[in-house]
What does this fold into?
Amino acid sequence: MNQPTIADVARAAGVSVATVSRALRGLDKVHPETRERVLAAASELDYITSPTASGLASGRTRLVGVITPYMARWFFVEVISAIEKALRQQDHHVLVMDLERSEAPSSRHSLDQRTLFKRVDGVVAINVDMLDTEAELVRQLALPVVTVGSRFDTAPRIGIDDVGTATLAADHLIDLGHRRIAYIGKHFPGSAHTRTPSERLAGFRASLGARSISVPDEWIFESEWRARDAFASALSLLRAEDRPTAILAASDEMAIGALAAARELGIRVPDDLSIVGIDDHELAEPFGLTTVRQNVVDQGVAAAEALLAQLGLADPALAVDRSFPVELVLRRSTAAPTDR
It folds into this structure.
């Protein structure tokens, strides 16, 4: 026996498909007697409401497109999970659009009309700066947009002060007495993930510049923001005779890679080398990593709320910029420098 459709329910109840959709979703402007007739018909036919059918009356898919430069990075996984859980409470779900091109890390996939048109009700862009063609497409489709970290027109922006966050981490190292400080986390040209790496590098430079501390260009490393790439960069940095006494990694995953490189070379942390990260990754505490903590889950929830607000499903006051505080967390990976 074929699965009954919303059209079957409409015929059985003697109403339109749009009325069935509104009645099953509990929306207003449906007469109580009509609603009862629709519910009775649906029950008799064993009809199961689907998101597609429910969207016929409203023109909505109940899907939110989440655009991300990476899928396999802790920050992005945590944010997407928080967004999905918050949207699920309003019977919405996520369609993840991963821009990472694994065969060429320095390039990325692009959004096109087939990706977005009639597939999603809105977009959350996580640390993605849209290309001009992508931005124009989103504007033409008139999709509600929320960004996490990056900026898009006047859309609500959720995030932290990345410049200030990196400045806080660098200030900590300088206050300990370090003057020979390297940085891991500069973005690769052409990658989808540019704004946050650029702003954190700017914060690092601002901190050192304010204390008249110079940093050699060769001590600033590009990285794919994961432990494996940072491990390779740190090995190269720490094998040199002229090496720093401290490393600021733009994420905890990269800081963990630097910790592993120091261990590989027999360099003691923090006796010979201090390392600080950013995020407060779930592994930061067991690794004893000093870091700048940000609340990633709260940012994801705020992004979902801002998107739902634009869809008329949450308080309109939530569709605004929100900047979350950060906190320096001291652990055992940083200390004052000693003579080598």
Notes: The chain is about 40% helix and 15% strand. Residues 127 and 149 are 5 Å apart (CA to CA). The chain has three domains: 6-58, 63-160+296-325, 162-294.
